[in-house]
Amino acid sequence: MSLIYEARWVFLEGILTTIKITIAASLLAFAMAFLAGLGRLSPFAPLRWLALVYIEVFRGVALLVQLFWMFFVLPFFGIVLDPIVTAVLALGLCNGAYGAEIVRGAIKSVPHGQSEAACALNYSRQQALWKILIPQAIPMMLPPFGNLAIELLKATALVSLITVHDLSFQALTLQQTTMRTIEPFTVVLAGYFLIAIVITGLFRLAERQTNARLGRGAR
Predict the structure, then answer these.
(1) pLDDT tens, position by position, 4-49
(2) What is the fold of 2-213?
(3) Is 11 helix (H, G, I), strand (E, B) or coil?
(4) In this predicted model, what pLDDT tens digit does every residue of 167-203 receive, in sequence order?
(5) Where are the domains of the chain?
(6) What's the Cα-to-Cα distance from 166 to each of 5, 19, 34, 56, 215, rounded to whole Å?
(7) What is the pTM of this model?
(8) Are 207 and 142 contacting, i.e. CB atoms less than 8 angstroms apart?
């Protein structure tokens, strides 16, 4: 316990870095998920193919490889990214590819009668999408988006391999300098678990609120 107390500021720095990366990468992932998911539903073939290529590439390549490629290979092309920027980009783009299928699936799950009702109201395709389909699809997206955010949080442990001083990096450094293993990695375990609990609670709250706005019962 004395080691944990003595290294409390080191752990705090690591936790804050992990939280910052998780938030930034999640925002990027959700934005890319909507762009690619809507792209897959576009009536324009080039957009559908562009979205499909993005999804397949980033889902088909291991996240660790994406991190290493952005951090170690891009400099050969004159593109040098800060380690945290690299982490956010890799995590966000990779998880956004998975999120795109969540968006597409949720929108396609809205009953077809809703589209017919929009047509009867003389809504354009875009109006029907943004005013009727997406609002009803969002509650269906939130539970899998919550799971995606937790998976993204856990994946942040990889960013220590590109010198980002996140929670895992700080614990590993402390373990190597003190030769004590139990305390540092117990803090890491507890830290990730507590952050995941907060993420779960936030998404459940958002789900209840969106269901209430649509007149649905809380789940």
Answers:
(1) 878 889 999 999 999 999 999 999 999 999 999 999 999 899 999 9
(2) MetI-like fold (1.10.3720)
(3) helix
(4) 999 999 998 988 888 999 999 999 999 999 999 999 9
(5) 2-213
(6) 18, 9, 28, 29, 42
(7) 0.90
(8) yes
